[in-house]
Amino acid sequence: MSAVPGSLHTVLGAGPAGTSTALELARRGHRVRLVDRSGSGEPLNGVERFTGDVGTVDGALAAIEGADVVYHCVNVAYHLQVDVMPRVQEAVLGAVARTGARLVVLDTLYPYGETHGEVMTEDTPWRATTAKGRMRAGLDETYLAAHREGRAKVVLGRSADFVGPRVLNSTLGGAVFPAALTGGEVLVLGDIDLGHSYTSILDVARGLAVLGENPAADGRVWHLPTAPARTTREILTVLGDLVGHPLRITAMDGPRAFGPFDETFMNSYAELFYQHTEPQIMDSTAFQREFGLTPTPIPATLDETLEWYRNFLASRAAS
Length: 319
Known about the structure:
Residues 13-218 form the NAD-dependent epimerase/dehydratase domain. 43% of the residues are buried. Helix content is 39%, strand content 17%. The protein has 319 residues and is α/β, with parallel strands linked by helices. The protein is built from ten helices and 13 strands. Helix 3 links the parallel strand 4 and strand 5.
């Protein structure tokens, strides 16, 4: 285990995944640095905030100075990803190659492309045809090649759609939970009677922390612990039970602006809308067996998320 006393774990990106990972690492007793361009945000117990731009090797080197393990949770605006994410990879990979820090990368299901309902495991072929899918697959090939060739120590953790505290820009996010709590219109995408995997953001954090503590995991892709797939309708029914009333659901059959997603975002997301017109089922059995980490049941995740959204809406109303 690399988690020696006093070791520094540096998390790049302070979105929901990065913030949750930093908090999980601090809970586990690590020294934690959380890096983003602003270096500001909510106070996080046990976490040092750091202002940094990891878009260049020099910026990445400054951000990860002294780190034993680096977690790449950086994301950028959807319409900029194809151009920007490869540059971020080049900078971060170059930095860890120079310092010797291990690199844990948060990854997506995009490289698999359309599966026509096939269950996705770590052995599923990468058949992406979209620009973002091909970009992500190319990044992953580069990460794995860097590890294989001894230039860096890298491990990838893939997640399905996020759900959980702090998650706003997700299918189960800002267009769902506030409306569920207030009796408003719950907006969802595509065919909600198809099986769909959702990964608790807290399980993302736990999974990445486990990968960061286990160098033997390096050199491959892992599916982060994810509860068994259910239909989105089933999940919304559970959510309705938790809030005490049936939800007013509107399912959108195409990529149009709604809720937290503006037209720019949805135009860029359109190529990935297949994720809502075919089953999206991810299997994380390999991770669960190897590391003994059980995914959080969907009802518990929904309950945690509702509690966060209640506080979030109350704080917004008070400000």
